[in-house]
């Protein structure tokens, strides 16, 4: 909810660029070629990285979706915005990214594919259009990247050309269950007793008996889902270019959290703050505005909102943002941040339950 917020706006609507924020669920930085040159299954995301600024040490505010997305939207840590439980919505009084840019004249569109991001989560506030794919019945088995990109492309093609847009896209497919993607099958020739689409509970019961081949098979299924998602993200980027919007759009690519494959004797996420779970990709691409390069400073999800506000001259004065603007880092005007630390938190789990299958 907006209250007592002032804005410093660009001089004209024509000067205001579009914003495309892409978030992939459950995508650790180390699973992309932009962060590991040995990986070849993410060509579109890697191409975006080559054209933009890659933040090499970006971290999630939490190791699961709901608080992380809330942190991206508010620029606040979970303890501040309050979204720390499965059923805890973002408070109406919170000021979100969509509200800020909507009040600045942007057409705000959200396209999501996680049941935890449905409107009653509070995370839809500020969006004029909010499209949700997936439901609680198919939360972990539906394959939705094509639907998300189809809707995104339709929104681009039928946009109000008299207004700039802020578009948020959320891709769920790399999240467990690890489903088979026939066109991007990276498991060919592997021998394993495991099958595609197994529940996390079933995998957890077997984890102490995993062979090396089993673990590599799971990673290959996951990589196939990343490849499938990358392909459909590429379709959106091509549509952006086809509409002549590439130079007028600031694209931000990131993830909500990562994934663990037995590096610390567990699978999935939500339960801890190891590097595999909180080291995420963060890429800013804006042709002719941002010189391609890489930055090694430690940054957080909570820095995305203040960075966009500073880059686009839309400055909320009173929204209790905790993040720091990365504008000067991105432009190469500064090499250090005044802030000396960031942190991540997890408070979802209880002693009786080590993971929840709905996250």
TL;DR of this structure?
By secondary structure, the protein is an alpha/beta fold. The chain is 27% helix and 16% strand.
DSSP strand tally:
11
**Any idea how many domains?**
1
- CATH topology descriptor: Alkaline Phosphatase, subunit A
Q: Which stretches are poorly predicted, pLDDT < 50 over at least 5 residues? A: 3-13, 350-359
Shape call: globular
Question: Level of helix content?
Answer: 25-40%
Separate helix tally? 10
Strand composition percent = 15-25%
Give the terminus-to-terminus CA distance.
26 Å
The name of the CATH architecture is 3-Layer(aba) Sandwich
**Can you tell me the CATH superfamily?**
Alkaline Phosphatase, subunit A
Q: What is the subunit arrangement here?
A: single chain
Task: Give the structural class.
Answer: alpha/beta
Kindly provide the radius of gyration, computed on alpha-carbon positions and rounded to a whole number of angstroms: 19 Å
User: Largest sheet at a glance?
Assistant: 9 strands, mixed
Give the overall pLDDT as a whole number: 90
CATH class division = Alpha Beta
Order of helices and strands: EHEHHHEEHEHHEEEHEEEHH
Task: Explain what this protein looks like in three dimensions.
This protein has 359 residues and is α/β, with parallel strands linked by helices. It has a single domain (13-187, 222-330), classed as Alkaline Phosphatase, subunit A (3-Layer(aba) Sandwich), CATH 3.40.720.10. The chain is built from ten helices and eleven strands. It has helices at residues 43-51, 65-74, 78-81, 97-103, 145-157, 200-206, 212-242, 275-278, 304-311, 327-330; strands spanning 18-24, 53-59, 107-112, 129-132, 165-171, 249-255, 260-261, 267-268, 279-280, 282-285, 293-300. Strands 1, 2, 3, 4, 5, 6, 9, 10 and 11 form a nine-stranded mixed sheet that branches. Strands 7-8 form a two-stranded antiparallel sheet. Helix 5 packs parallel to helix 7. Mean pLDDT is 90; it is low at 3-13 and 350-359.
């Amino acid at each position: 909810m907006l209250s007592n917020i002032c804005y410093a706006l660009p001089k004209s609507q024509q000067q205001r660029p579009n914003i495309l924020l892409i978030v992939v669920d459950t995508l650790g930085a180390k699973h992309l070629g932009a962060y590991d040159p040995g990986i070849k299954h993410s060509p579109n995301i890697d191409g975006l990285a080559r054209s933009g600024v890659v933040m090499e040490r970006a971290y999630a505010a939490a190791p699961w979706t709901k608080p992380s997305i809330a942190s991206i939207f508010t620029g606040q840590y979970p303890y501040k915005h309050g979204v720390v439980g499965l059923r805890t919505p973002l408070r109406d009084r919170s000021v979100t990214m969509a509200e800020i840019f909507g009040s600045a004249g942007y057409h705000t569109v959200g396209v999501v594919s996680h049941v935890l991001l449905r409107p009653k989560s509070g995370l839809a506030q500020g969006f004029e259009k909010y499209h949700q794919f997936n439901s609680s019945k198919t939360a972990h088995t539906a394959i939705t990247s094509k639907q998300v990109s189809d809707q995104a492309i339709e929104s681009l093609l039928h946009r109000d050309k008299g207004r700039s847009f802020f578009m948020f896209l959320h891709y769920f497919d790399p999240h467990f269950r690890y489903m088979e993607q026939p066109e991007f099958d990276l498991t060919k020739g592997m021998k394993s007793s495991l099958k595609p689409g197994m529940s996390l509970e079933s995998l957890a019961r077997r984890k102490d008996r995993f062979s090396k081949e089993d673990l590599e098979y799971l990673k290959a299924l996951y990589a196939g889902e990343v490849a499938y998602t990358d392909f459909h993200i590429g379709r959106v980027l091509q549509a952006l270019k086809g509409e002549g919007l590439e130079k007028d759009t600031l694209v931000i690519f990131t993830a909500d959290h990562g994934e663990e494959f037995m590096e610390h004797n567990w699978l999935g996420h939500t339960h801890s703050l190891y590097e595999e779970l909180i080291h995420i990709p963060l890429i800013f691409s804006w042709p002719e505005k941002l010189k391609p390069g890489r930055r090694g400073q430690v940054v957080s999800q909570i820095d995305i909102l203040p960075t966009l506000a500073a880059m686009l001259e839309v400055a909320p004065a009173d929204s209790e943002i905790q993040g720091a603007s990365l504008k000067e880092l991105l432009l190469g005007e500064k090499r250090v941040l005044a802030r000396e630390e960031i942190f991540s938190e997890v408070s979802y789990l209880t002693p009786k339950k080590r993971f929840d299958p709905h996250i």
